[in-house]
Amino acid sequence: MATDDAATQIAASEDEMATRVLPAVGPGPETAAPLPEPDTPGPRQPVVSGGGLSLLEARGVSAWFGSHRVLEGVSLVMGAGEVTALIGPSGCGKSTFLRVLNRMHELVPSASLAGEVLLDGGDVYGRGWRLQDVRRDIGMVFQKPNPFPAMSIYDNVVSGLRLTGRRVSRDVKDEIVVRSLVSAGLWGEVRDRLRQPGGGLSGGQQQRLCIARALAVRPRVLLMDEPCSALDPTSTRVIEETMGQLRREVTIVIVTHNMQQAARVSQRCAFFLASQGMPGQIVEYGDTDAMFSEPQDERTFDYVNGRFG
Ligand SMILES: Nc1ncnc2c1ncn2[C@@H]1O[C@H](COP(=O)(O)OP(=O)(O)O)[C@@H](O)[C@H]1O
Ligand SMILES: [Mg+2]
């Protein structure tokens, strides 16, 4: 989808910008000592804050591109430690909603919005928040895996740390790399080739590398926009299993077109719909199992049973 590609490029160019503008965070990893095993106790320095489980809440969110309103009055609580799935036909505003949540929507010149987004009660559009803090606390993974292909696996994982603006020692970086790759379910497959380029991994591995990169800065929320739609079934299953573990450390919001996936990975589900040129809205929200087994709205019933979309 063009929109997702654009978003991917935005993310990539942001990272590139960070690489150009911000100071380097220490010597490269080429001469690093062997990395610690995941279970090896080591220094647990709080490199970046905010690793606890967080609640994200949208209140009355509307969004426009120019005069075209694509979302209207969307309110949604994305629970701490839960996976919330956003489902609905193409074009109903799911990706736009995700980008409103971490302030990427405003990167589009014609874009505007109304409403509030609260992370643990604090309005991310409020004065107290710097843009880079919002994007660090609310990470994002896109449809198409977008690692830096020529950059090593190790450097890919730590590339986002530059956004935190802090200097990080080699030892701490090593720990972050191990922790992030373990959490992303990739450590066992790459532990012996951390210096090799990220572009050499399979598509599914690249997507988990992107998840590891997002986790390296210890986000409070992870947004995933159709993270498996470019992947084969085996890679998809691995990522779904990874999400089951991950939700214990980070609140997850996932957009998916795959109803089975929504049922497998999420505890809560929101059904978005934009009917006949109207802006997207949430038709139904609730416990995922209940939404699939006994939806309250006829349109939800038709959608989850594959009658449209
Ligand atoms: N950058 C953009 N500029 C203008 N319109 C856009 C842009 N991105 C998305 N849209 C429009 O916003 C609406 C919602 O799109 P999107 O959020 O991508 O929906 P979904 O993710 O549910 O498929 C669509 O009508 C789409 O054409
Ligand atoms: Mg989309």
Write the layout of secondary structure elements.
Layout: H1 2-21, E1 56-65, E2 68-78, E3 83-87, H2 94-101, E4 111-119, E5 122-123, H3 131-137, E6 138-141, H4 153-158, H5 170-183, H6 187-190, H7 203-215, E7 221-225, H8 233-246, E8 251-255, H9 259-265, E9 268-273, E10 281-287, H10 288-293, H11 298-304
Parallel strand pairs: 3-8, 3-9, 6-7, 7-8
Antiparallel strand pairs: 1-2, 1-4, 4-5, 9-10
How would you describe this structure to a colleague?
There is one protein chain. This protein has a single domain, classed as Rossmann fold. The strands form 2 sheets. It has a 6-stranded mixed beta sheet with strand order 6-7-8-3-9-10, with helices on both faces. A 4-stranded antiparallel beta sheet has the order 2-1-4-5, covered by helices on one side. Helices cover 34% and strands 21% of the residues. The protein contains 11 helices and 10 strands. It is an alpha/beta fold. The structure holds adenosine-5'-diphosphate and magnesium ion. Magnesium ion (MG) binds next to helix 1 and helix 2. Adenosine-5'-diphosphate binds next to helix 2. Keywords: ATP-binding, Nucleotide-binding, Translocase, Transport. This is Phosphate transport system ATP-binding protein. Pfam families: ABC_tran.
